[in-house]
Amino acid sequence: MDTGYRPGRPSAALHTDICSPVATDPTWSNLDHGDRLLLQADGVPLWHGLMEALQPHIVVLAIARRCLSDIAFEPVDDAWHDLHVVDTKVGGDPREPPYRVQARRYAVGGSEALFVLCPAMRSPLPIGTAQKHELGAIILDGLANVR
Fold it and tell me: Which residue in 12, 89, 98, 118 is deepest, having the highest Cβ count within 10 Å?
């Protein structure tokens, strides 16, 4: 999407976790269940406050589908819809099952944001580099539908 964390890019990117925008050491996946629950109790509302303050145009979620229930913003769309389906592996072989990227618009702090769900698996985006670039272009094109 031609964005990044460093200065000099046409747009800025920010990485946070929906369960808690506070960095943890060890990483989230290595925290024990009790620590995760403690962080999540304050972290989810803190994440929502951060989103309201920043009012992003795009929010890319690399999470398990069950975590979607943590989103408390008012949906603009009736349901999640397919934005892009990656149905081949990098080498061209069929991908089973296909990797479905879905989108839904939400009202965030007085404006709309396009939320894009990239289902988390073993890695956040288990597709090839060229496929990621294609997905980025599709996400930016989907932004045209956000007011």
Answer: 118
Q: What are the helix (H) ranges across the chain?
A: 33-54, 129-142
pLDDT tens per residue across all 147 residues of the chain: 777 777 777 777 777 888 888 888 888 788 899 998 899 889 999 999 999 998 888 898 888 888 899 999 999 999 999 999 999 988 889 999 999 999 999 999 889 999 999 887 766 778 888 998 899 889 888 777 665
DSSP state of 145: G
pTM of the model: 0.86
CA dihedral angle for residue 38, residue 126, residue 62, residue 146, rounded to 10 degrees: 180
Phi and psi torsions of 116, nearest 5°:
-120, 120
